[in-house]
Amino acid sequence: MTTPWKKGERRWIGEVQDQWVMYSDNPTDYTLHAPIGYGSTSVVYLSSYHPPSSSSPSQPLACAVKLINLDLLPPQSLHQLTQETRLMSLSKHPNVLRVRGSWTEGSRLYIAMRLMRKGSVADLMAYRYQGGLAEDVCRCILKQALEGLKYLHVNGFIHRDVKAANLLIDDDGTVLLGDLGVAVSTLDDVPSPTSTTFSSSTFSTSIGTSTGTGAGTGTGTGNGTATARPRIRKRSFVGTPSWMAPEVIRRQAYDSSADIWSFGILSLELTRGRAPYSRLPPSRILSQILTLPPPTLLLTGGVYTYTPQFADIISLCLSPDPGARPGAGELLDKAWFRQARKKAFLVGSVLQGLPPLEERLVRRGEGDGGGRARGRGGILRSLGWGRGRGRGRGRGVWGA
């Protein structure tokens, strides 16, 4: 079911009716509780949203609120952050985690989103599937992630940090793309100044931009057919090392095909519990990506066996030539993805009997029993707010 467009609202291709309530932008409607995660410039709070009511008080809704200290960001990135936060609040897709409320107080930006209690796919693997996931589970997760990527790409966005830590799982098996903190618009009328932040796992350095034709261009169907619009290619050095495309590392102009490379690495991550080279220091990871042939799927030797068809999908995504990589829509048309199970399959196969997220993290020593992460990222990463550490967890068969 499509949604009628409101006057003055940005037109999103392929949007659907959002079944979840939007929150308000009024800070008095929120109660922030204990911190549940930390980033280099932000803190995430377990929070309650109190829907405004003209009569009796309504039941508060649990949510997550991210507080970003704008003083710690370079000036040129502030416009991008506030503008794209607004744009992502307008996105409506079942596989993209939506911004549901935002406001500023002085130099602090608050962003409210749904609280995903099942956590991330990375957290699921770290807790129960350190050696990787079965092919049917991988396919169910990857297809949903690809649907979200297709939606972003058709609407002129590059996610730029596609990995298991940024795939969130809902109670019903829905997989959502989260952590849009480094997503960027490539539309010609949406200026996107590049940022200059750096952390131990997610890099972002201003290199400038150049114009070009993005791989994510094309027509799409929302309320009718929309015509492709000019794109601006990016040169920003952004992402998490193990998942970064070669052209991003080389600071060459790139487009949505860089996300497809990351998607290929994500696929490998799901089969072995960690990404290739993820146990190496960041500088070594980048060097390996540039100097070694693209990694391939090992059909045997791990916890599960995999089909040549799955290996072929990954090889297509990891083509060194960005122009040779298929688009998200083209991948979804592949026979391998058409065989994907419904999302409810995840409930019975991997989510059943899974303890609450907070309990899982406490068992792993990442919490203090009150929901607060001891390290700078435990629950934060599991809710899709964090950057991960770039060093995959769990045992696998990668050479490094």
From TrEMBL:
Keywords in UniProt for this one?
ATP-binding, Kinase, Nucleotide-binding, Serine/threonine-protein kinase, Transferase
Q: Name one GO molecular function term.
A: protein serine/threonine kinase activity
Q: Where is the composition biased (Low complexity)?
A: 201-210
Q: Which domain of life is it from?
A: Eukaryota
| Binding-site list for ATP | K66
Gene3D superfamilies on file: Phosphorylase Kinase, domain 1 (3.30.200.20), Transferase(Phosphotransferase) domain 1 (1.10.510.10)
Query: Where do Gly residues bias regions lie?
Result: 211-223
According to the entry, every stretch annotated as the Protein kinase domain falls at: 30-337
Write out the ranges of the annotated region (Disordered): 201-228
Record SMART domains: S_TKc
List the transmembrane segments.
none
Give yes or no: UniProt keyword Kinase.
yes
* Cross-referenced PROSITE patterns: PROTEIN_KINASE_ATP, PROTEIN_KINASE_DOM, PROTEIN_KINASE_ST
Q: Name one Pfam family in it.
A: Pkinase
Q: What's this protein's family per the entry? A: Belongs to the protein kinase superfamily. STE Ser/Thr protein kinase family. STE20 subfamily.
| Protein's name in the database | Kinase-like protein
